[in-house]
Amino acid sequence: MAQEKVEFPITGKIISVNVKQGDTVSEGDILCLLESMKMENPILAPVGGTVSEIGISAGQVVEVGEVVALIEY
Asked: Measuring CA to CA, which of 16, 17, 38, 64 is 20 to 30 A from 6?
């Protein structure tokens, strides 16, 4: 199986995490919501598959390039 590494495109604070390890996602599903500059930014799944790893939690502050999740497809 191939893996897709999803990374944060901007710095911000995680408002909510919508998936957990083992969940099946479709392309375009919201993985989490990120607040940056007082705007909510959805972080979307770039591919459909199974979330093999997610290492984030609500309230966490993240930087550009940090990993949101790994998706196996």
From this structure: 38
Q: What is the DSSP string of 36-62?
A: ETTEEEEEEPSS-EEEEEE---TT-EE
Q: Mean pLDDT for each 10-residue chunk of the chain (73 residues)?
A: 95 98 98 97 98 96 97 97
Report d(CA 72, CA 36) in Å as an integer.
28
Q: How many Å apart are CA 72 and CA 25, to the nearest integer?
A: 10
Sign for the pseudo-dihedral over CA of 23, 49, 9, 66: positive
What's the CA gap between 68 and 17, in Å, rounded? 10
Q: Is the pTM of this model over 0.90?
A: yes
